Amino acid sequence: MSKSNSALSLFLPQEVRARSHRLLERAEAGKSAHLEVDLARLGDALALVLETARETYPDFLIPPYGIWRDLEAGGLDRWGRWQAPAALRQQMRCWPPLRILPCSPHS
Questions:
Q1: pLDDT band at residue 2 under the 50/70/90 scheme
Q2: Within this chain, do residues 31 and 58 fall inside the same structural domain, yes or no?
Q3: For residues 41 and 33, is the Cβ–Cβ distance under 8 A?
Q4: CA distances from 27 to 11, 22, 42, 52 (A)
Q5: Are 79 and 72 in contact (CB under 8 A)?
Q6: Average pLDDT for residues 42-54, to the nearest whole number?
Q7: Per-residue pLDDT at 16
Q8: Based on the domain organization, do 78 and 50 belong to the same domain?
Q9: Contact 15/2 with Cβ under 8 angstroms?
């Protein structure tokens, strides 16, 4: 993963590619309980992806990271949940710093 451990770093193209390749290698080696690879059907899969893209984006102007909407599947705003803590941290940076005073056992 990138130097930042932020969940948002998972959207970096190089991170998406690296993780995808690792998943593919595991599946090809039969080490995945959830994925199975049949490269003979790759052409069929490509045809389905292109058909779906053509229906959704007839001009093929697919927005970058168009898949981010998957984060709202099932009516859950996962993107908002990730952004809320970041927004709160940003707001807190603008607040005056807190001073923590030492406690004296005699006070």
A1: very low
A2: no
A3: no
A4: 22, 9, 14, 25
A5: yes
A6: 92
A7: 85
A8: yes
A9: yes
Residues 56 and 75 in one domain: yes
**Residue at token pair 């908002």:** 80
Reported as a pLDDT band with limits 50, 70 and 90, residue 104 is low
Q: Which two tokens stand for residue 26?
A: 């595991």
Same domain, 6 and 32: yes
CB 28 within 8 A of CB 35: no
Same domain, 33 and 48: no
Q: What is 2-67 written as a DSSP string?
A: -SS--GGGGGSHHHHHHHHHHHHHHHHTT--SS----GGGHHHHHHHHHHHHHHH-TT--PPTTGG
Residue 40 CA to residue 31 CA, distance in Å, equals 19
pLDDT at 1: 43
> Is residue 3 a part of any domain in this protein?
yes
Which residue is listed with tokens 């949940």?
81
Q: What is the pLDDT of residues 84-99, one digit of tens each?
A: 666 656 655 555 554 4
Same domain, 49 and 33: no
Residue 104 lies in a domain: no
